[in-house]
UniProtKB/TrEMBL annotation:
<dbReference type="InterPro" id="IPR036655">
    <property type="entry name" value="MtmB_sf"/>
</dbReference>
<dbReference type="InterPro" id="IPR008031">
    <property type="entry name" value="MtmB_MeTrfase"/>
</dbReference>
<dbReference type="GO" id="GO:0008168">
    <property type="term" value="F:methyltransferase activity"/>
</dbReference>
<dbReference type="GO" id="GO:0032259">
    <property type="term" value="P:methylation"/>
</dbReference>
<dbReference type="Pfam" id="PF05369">
    <property type="entry name" value="MtmB"/>
</dbReference>
<protein>
    <submittedName>
        <fullName>Monomethylamine:corrinoid methyltransferase</fullName>
    </submittedName>
</protein>
<keyword id="KW-0808">Transferase</keyword>
<keyword id="KW-0489">Methyltransferase</keyword>
Length: 240
């Protein structure tokens, strides 16, 4: 790896760290590399509810810069029941924590994406959109996604989810916060009722022509359907 590449070290839940991470952190500091410190506070876990998890998220973020000399922090509040970052509660934690830090510091913040639904599904793209909106309006500089299907299945992700993440971020940049909150409420309502029946989606090999590295016609149609939903919700990015 090059010194300019992000070198990861992770904290533990909640507000804990192990000796191994301290050793790795010391090595990174001595080597003078780019340090990315990762942590995923758990909503509904040891921290508790929305307010408590948000406080822990802020503290964890600040601690990464103090204890491990982070160049930037990779967040990812996750729901204890669903194991994803796109639930209403996880989004609220991520949004409030980032907003508080961005209002008072110049620290570089990122967020990682774990959807419940898999690739080539509208639900996956809508989940991705909700988090991209939250991260953008709360001031995060880096969007890190997408780990579809909770990020636990080999090859269950594609570049199409990342593309949608980026396009939605561009679409909401500069929007009024009140309007964004109304949009988010409508958007999350479209998929949160389907948590128990979330589609598994398809693997990269099923979503792409692996020789030409282009998405299948099926995924393009799914993508267009998600774009239409976002357009109907009031985003005009795809009409420009």
């Amino acid at each position: 790896m090059r010194p300019s590449d992000s070198h990861e070290v992770s904290q533990l839940n909640e507000l804990k760290i192990d000796v191994g991470a301290l050793v790795v952190g010391a090595h990174y500091a001595t080597a003078g590399v780019i340090v990315m410190v990762e942590q995923m506070p758990i909503f509904g876990g040891y921290a508790g509810g929305l307010e408590e998890t948000t406080i822990v998220d802020v503290a964890t973020t600040l601690n990464s810069f103090v204890m491990l000399q982070a160049t930037w922090h990779l967040d990812g509040p996750v729901h204890v029941r669903w194991g994803i970052t796109t639930t209403r509660e996880a989004l609220a934690v991520a949004g409030h924590a980032a907003r508080a830090i961005e209002e008072n510091t110049h620290l570089i913040l990122g967020n990682q994406y774990y959807t419940l639904a898999g690739p080539c599904t509208v639900m996956c793209l809508l989940e991705t959109a909700a988090q991209a909106i939250t991260d953008t309006v709360s001031g995060r500089e880096i969007l890190s996604g997408v780990a579809s299907g909770k990020g636990v299945v080999t090859d269950l992700f594609t570049a199409m989810e990342a593309r949608f993440m980026g396009e939605v971020a561009h679409a909401v940049a500069g929007m009024d916060l009140h309007e964004v909150n109304i949009l988010l409420d409508k958007l999350v309502s479209l998929y949160e009722k389907d948590y128990k029946t979330a589609p598994e989606g398809k693997t990269f090999q099923e979503c792409y022509d692996v020789k030409k590295l282009v998405p299948t016609e099926e995924y393009i149609q799914v993508y267009d359907e998600a774009v239409k939903i976002m357009t109907d919700l009031g985003l005009t990015y795809w009409n420009d």
